[in-house]
UniProtKB/TrEMBL annotation, chains A, B:
Annotated PANTHER family: D-SERINE DEHYDRATASE, ZGC:162816-RELATED
High-level lineage: Bacteria, Bacillati, Bacillota, Bacilli, Bacillales
TM region positions: none
Organism: Paenibacillus contaminans
Signal sequence residues: none
Protein name as annotated: Alanine racemase
Length: 368, 368
């Protein structure tokens, strides 16, 4: 099948570009001599997870236990759940997961670690643990200092748990004013993590994982001695948010949404068959002045606004002259690719114009 | 099962409140002597669609062909697809749908109507058509005037199509400054639709549907003579956006998200296991000063900000004194219920504390 035959809206993954994105980030990690552990929450696709591991990634990161189960079922062996696992139902699933994969969990309290320890011990399995360090984002994690050292020491003593090291996420890189600020955040994140790891080693603890990074900060944090791995996610496809952060080239964005024009109520207005239930409200405006998306090959079209199932396009005079009719299809690069893929049950994996496969988004809807 | 046993995040539908919401809107329509055709895009649940029809609704509205297929499969007979159906693949499905339900489609151009006519004629079926009139929202639809009359006349002549009347959507009611402005928008929408319907009748056309309304404007548009039906959607559950528009009472909101605290990194901060991939970025802040959601029974907790899988809560001193620990669960009324339900594969239908049923969100992911 050719992509021209796909009904709309449909998510199209360009395989050539995706492979290049995977290789480019792997090269950054390889050059720094550290591991790459891509975040699977971006793609939620075991097939892409396998591509990343086959290209040299040390394993995968996921946000949810359900995503971990999907990746383990696809044969991914080394999985970091960058999320505290809380509650009996999830602990029972975590035990089953640990029987088929090497599982490490990020956490920031004994309230999470102790029930994990009891569940592991009762089942005769073990879970890796990384302690989450907050380097300024203010989400999960303890700030650098005595508390984080004490938590790591306590975790190291709990049966069924293996203290692996530390994890940070410098999400503030998304709000940084410019590239210099992002560089500073990335370097700082790496430095704080490496210093804390050194303190843990002084206390006699083994630390083999010092895991850092968001897509915009990864390339900087990777340069800091002592960091052992980076966890970028969005780099695999790229999107307009990453372009606006100088973290991705527009031409390398490999995920598009194919849409159809369903109404032309005015010469300068067209309506497409996708709104927030496809593109979501995530992300700011396009950095290249095209609104809430970028229409590939039609830079004079602005993705002006969305309602749930409608997208309103504004056409420049030049685009009106080129023409756009009911039934015409377009491909649009979204503001936030991770959000878009969450809205679809399946995507098309495409090389050139040829649809190589329809992939179920196996990790979608794994909210628990 | 009791709702206390549901793992998180989980969407909980309170059946008692939902039934009351359904009855209250049906009473508004009944009092005005017009039909209620609820928008199914809010719930995407055939079970709730049936509740609405059983309570007196004339049929259902949907946004997507895939949603119509789900509702028809559940035995809903009268379905309005408030969306132009474009492309051969969808027309083939529309033909099959018309074999099992009475289907009416909204459109605003002959570019949509003519292929529909050809498909209907070839298959020996017929589609109802309502012409979409733009009463100021600037989305799909032609403005009042000659063009809309000409389109209706042309549609009436096309084989396989049955001109049913007109449809408007006053989405600008969501941006109105106050209740007086919303009232004005609703009355204006009804008046414009009724006047255009009268013009069509003068031209000798039969008009049995004059369909208006968003949830905030429905109760006003319903009062205008000549309007035959209203199409509110969100009223069935309510959410903080509707509360802020004086269109719903907080106490009547019947959809909540059950969540678990997974981190307590600071005395005034808690992190829950749901972010934008559950709550989405839709909707503004809560009208009652509680941020991006309202924690039932805990008014001193602010839902401060989200990332994809994390929700950050801020606790007042009083809430800190009450206490909130890792593992505690909360129920949160979201900003936009239609968006939240789209993120889940299933929801719990609950009466009191008892889970009466787990419903698959059968209309979710029906993007095409």
């Amino acid at each position: 099948m050719r992509k021209q035959e796909l009904d709309t809206p449909y998510v199209i993954i360009d395989l050539d570009k995706t492979e290049q994105n995977i290789e480019a980030m792997q090269a950054i990690a390889d050059k720094a001599g550290i591991g790459l552990r891509p975040h699977g929450k971006t793609h939620k696709l075991p097939q892409v997870g396998r591509m990343q591991v086959d290209a040299g990634a040390v394993g995968l990161t996921v946000a949810k236990l359900g995503e971990a189960e999907v990746m383990a079922a696809a044969g991914i062996r080394d999985i970091l759940i960058a999320y505290p696992i809380v509650g009996e139902a999830k602990l029972a699933r975590l035990v089953r997961l640990a029987e088929q994969a090497d599982v490490t969990v990020a956490l920031d309290s004994l309230d999470v670690a102790e029930p994990m320890s009891r569940a592991a011990e009762a089942a005769g399995v073990s879970f890796g643990v990384v302690v989450e360090l907050d380097c300024g984002f203010g989400r999960v994690g303890l700030p650098p200092g005595q508390a984080v050292l004490e938590l790591a020491q306590a975790v190291a003593k709990l049966p069924g748990l293996r203290l692996r090291g530390l994890l940070t996420f410098a999400g503030q890189s998304y709000d940084a004013a410019d590239e210099a600020a992002r560089r500073s955040i990335g370097l700082d994140e790496g430095r704080v993590a490496a210093e804390t790891a050194a303190q843990l080693r002084e206390l006699g603890l083994e630390v083999d994982i010092v895991s850092v990074g968001s897509t915009p900060s990864s390339r900087y944090a990777a340069q800091v001695a002592g960091v052992t791995e980076i966890r970028p996610g969005t780099y695999v496809f790229g999107d307009l948010t990453q372009v606006s952060l100088d973290a991705h080239e527009l031409e390398s964005c490999s995920l598009t949404v194919k849409v159809t024009v369903v109404s032309r109520p005015a010469p300068n207005r067209a309506v497409i068959d996708a709104g927030t239930k496809v593109f979501t409200m995530d992300g700011g405006d396009s950095p290249i002045g095209t609104g809430r998306g970028y229409v590939v090959g039609r830079p004079g079209i602005t993705v002006a606004w969305f309602t749930e199932e409608h997208g309103m396009l504004e056409l420049s005079q030049e685009e009106q002259d080129i023409g756009l009719a009911v039934g015409d299809t377009l491909e649009i690069i979204p503001c936030h690719c991770c959000a878009v893929i969450s809205m679809f049950d399946e995507v098309a994996a495409v090389r050139g114009d040829e649809v190589e496969a329809i992939w179920p988004v196996a990790g979608r809807g794994k909210v628990r």
